[in-house]
Design brief:
The chain is mainly α and 642 residues long. The chain contains 35 helices and no strands. 33% of the residues are buried.
């Protein structure tokens, strides 16, 4: 009997030594089924093996049984709670931790409180989790990181960043630097975040990308995407995909980010990838949590309203948890408007506008709290000076409120524009203007708001051209040393130039056009972009304007200039607007409403010869090329001149 027991024990420990926990479990369970007593050593080994085999639920049940045998064992109390946390039984874990009899002087006390705080955080009991951590040493690295995680979960990225910075003074691991960069990303400090994560990746490269390189590359791609550098974001994901193993390639975050960066060039594939992620994951536990929101926004963006509606309905029970309040309202309004326009949209916009006004009011109040009534100077009385700690807390609160307001504005604008679009689509531009004007006090310097207000005014023509200029100029004024005019919408720049010309401000229009041409030439020469149509589109818009106003000499010359160089600027889209002007000119000539001189005719023929030469392989459909249409136009003008 003793020999058999020794043999079983030897086999179990051999399995544990080889990390073959499943075999060890089978041996121990078989021994118990054969009538062996459920002794403390056997159960302790069994619980240990279950835990290391990642069967945390079984592990917790056995540790609970061990606690019935040894209720005062601090070690079993700790392992029981640890198993419950890993089994995601957070309510049971927090109750067990709270009722623990582990002494504060015990070496297990700190670990128990950290587990209790984690269980409370996972239940959303964030203030309770913070209170639990006050019982731990605030200079302990695990305590600091746990506090940071709680603040991060609460989306208080400023406080989380402070804690991660403290952690970095204690421990210089790359993962802590990663979380610092992640906080800065959420705070939209993109330049700082990009430098930080690039440094992390460079360091990881020296270690042959061991560890968390998947996290680092995904964060870098996300930052570049947020900075609207689609080319660099795509290159970052491709670099990672080339070096990643199969497990990383199937990682949900990697698949999600790869879909996001490729959406601009291949929207259909991007949408399919997000569908795959949603199909293989439990609905209540999407990872990343942004998957559902991005899928819905993408499908609406591509005009797949039916698919968006079906998906929103299918996931409605988890949508409120996974989507921000504003995104949920936007999608709900967009889907509802398919069957009953403006049914819920107007009330949603009104509700969000009220919330923004309250946030703005609080911001102004916080920002002037230390200002004397009737004076713009702070109080100087020594007795009135806040303590350093008080000042830091006020500064932190103000920064947090400011960030909260900025996020709310960012989420509110799409909802507002959805309602404005309903008026726009009906051609009710005056009503669209009046509706947008109601929200000027909140969004007066928001670029999306200003661009849409400018377009609304521009389309009303007449005196509204001049009114549109200040709104378009908000976009120009956002131009900094780190961005260029090519980052701005080409049509907005074209409309601004046209508005300047129509209000007799030709010099301003010419200055903008020269600046665009210069930046485009520099960007192409430096290889920063492979194609850019800004200069072409602006010249096309200005040329079309002059043609519409009967000044064909100048208008046609501008349009001809807009396609130079032809190998870069000639495309189906630019040719479509170009030929419209030439056809309008031909119509005027045929009706004897315009007399074309020889110089203009030769310029047009030369231009169409160049288009024909370059447009041979540019097709408008399966059979018609740009070259064939250029030949037809050329023949038309030759006929009209005889």
């Amino acid at each position: 009997m003793t020999l058999r027991h020794h043999t079983i024990t030897s086999k179990v420990y051999s399995c544990i030594r080889d990390c073959n926990y499943r075999n060890a479990i089978q041996i121990l369970q078989s021994n118990l089924e054969d009538g062996a007593p459920r002794s403390r050593p056997v159960l302790s080994l069994l619980a240990y093996c279950f835990y290391n085999d990642e069967d945390y639920l079984q592990s917790s049940e056995i540790y609970e049984e061990l606690l019935e045998m040894c209720p005062s064992s601090e070690q079993y109390q700790l392992y029981y709670v640890q198993s419950l946390v890993n089994a995601e039984s957070y309510i049971d874990a927090s109750r067990a931790a709270a009722s623990s009899t582990i002494s504060p002087s015990s070496p297990f006390f700190r670990r128990m409180k950290l587990l209790q705080a984690q269980a409370e955080m996972e239940q959303g009991l964030l203030s309770e989790a913070v209170a639990t951590l006050t019982q731990c040493n605030d200079e302990d690295i695990d305590t600091v990181l746990s506090l940071a995680a709680i603040h991060f979960r609460n989306k208080d990225y400023i406080s989380a960043l402070e804690q991660y910075n403290v952690a970095q003074t204690i421990d210089d691991r790359s993962i802590i630097a990663y979380y610092i960069a992640l906080c800065r990303y959420h705070l939209e400090e993109f330049e700082v975040a990009l430098r930080a994560v690039t440094d992390i990746i460079d360091t990881a490269a020296e270690d042959e990308y061991e560890g968390d390189s998947c996290l680092y590359f995904n964060l870098k791609a996300a930052i570049l995407h947020a900075m609207k550098d689609a080319k660099a974001a795509k290159a970052t994901m491709e670099e990672f995909m080339d070096m990643a193993d199969e497990e990383d390639l199937l990682d949900a975050v990697t698949m999600h980010n790869d879909a996001i960066v490729k959406f601009g060039t291949d929207p259909a594939t991007a949408i399919q990838k997000l569908q795959c992620i949603m199909a293989v994951q439990p609905q209540q536990n999407f990872c990343p949590s942004e998957t559902l929101g991005n899928f819905l926004i993408m499908t609406l963006n591509q005009g797949h309203e039916d698919l968006a509606s079906e998906t929103f309905e299918a996931y409605k029970h988890v949508a409120e948890e996974l989507l921000s309040h504003e995104t949920y309202s936007y999608v709900q309004a967009a889907v509802t408007s398919m069957t009953s326009p403006n049914a819920t949209l107007e009330s949603s916009v009104t509700e969000h506008a009220k919330r923004l006004k309250l946030q703005m009011k609080r911001l102004r109040s916080n920002n002037t709290a230390s200002i004397r009534p009737g004076s713009s100077r702070p109080m100087s009385s020594r007795s009135s000076r806040p303590s350093t700690a008080s000042y830091r807390q006020t500064h932190r609160d103000l920064a947090h409120a400011t960030k909260e307001f900025e996020v709310s504005v960012k989420q509110f604008v799409p909802l507002l524009m959805l309602q404005a679009k309903a008026l726009w689509d009906q051609g009710e531009y005056a009503k669209t203007e009046a509706f947008l004007q109601q929200h000027y006090g909140i969004l007066g310097d928001n670029k999306i708001f200003c661009e849409n207000m400018a377009h609304t005014l521009f389309l009303q023509q007449g005196d509204k051209f001049e009114e549109s200029i200040p709104y378009y100029e908000v976009l120009i004024n956002s131009h900094t040393d780190t961005s260029n005019l090519l980052d701005l919408p080409a049509m907005a720049l074209a409309n601004l130039c046209v508005a300047h010309i129509l209000t007799n401000q030709n010099e301003e229009a010419e200055a903008i056009m020269k600046a665009i041409a210069l930046e485009e030439d520099n960007a192409l020469a430096m290889g920063e972009v492979t194609e850019s149509y800004h200069n072409s589109i602006v010249n096309l818009a200005v040329g079309t304007l002059y043609c519409e106003r009967g000044n064909y000499d100048f208008g046609i010359s501008r349009i001809c200039k807009s396609l130079e160089p032809f190998d870069k600027n000639l495309s189906p889209d630019t040719w479509f607007y170009t030929k419209r002007c030439f056809l309008a000119l031909a119509s005027k000539i045929s009706k004897l409403m315009f007399m074309m001189n020889d110089t203009m005719l030769h310029d047009i023929i030369d231009f169409l010869d160049d288009v024909e030469a370059e447009g041979t392989n540019i097709f408008l459909d399966d059979s018609i090329s740009v070259a064939s249409e250029a030949r037809q136009l050329k023949q038309m003008f030759i006929t009209l001149s005889t």
